[in-house]
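INFO  loader      accepted 1 record
INFO  loader      residues=123
INFO  predictor   begin
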Amino acid sequence: MKTEILDAVESKSLKKDIPHFEVGDIVDVRCRIKEGDKERIQVFTGTVIARKGRGINETFTVRRIVDEEGVERVFPLHSPNVVDVQQVRSGKTRRAKLYYLRKRTGKSVKLTQKPGKRITIDE
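INFO  predictor   done
INFO  writer      dumping tokens
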């Protein structure tokens, strides 16, 4: 009984148009930032290293390197502050969580691109 009521309440807050992205993909996350009475959209680009949760509790973690320092942000997928998630590149992985990337720096952080998803430029 309780779960039916909770599901009914949660379903109103769930987003309908969630883009498909997986762990290992490089994504652009557009966030709504409020500063005083102003509002702007900020883009956070990085590698998805984890996804967890179900329904309204679903979150994903994005990691990037800024000034040789690792920065991770956890975004709730159905948050109204997350405007858009756009996949830039798909990475090939064999794990569900990529926490091992935290120990890596430089070129070893890059993941190989999935076959069949290569971008070709015609000359």
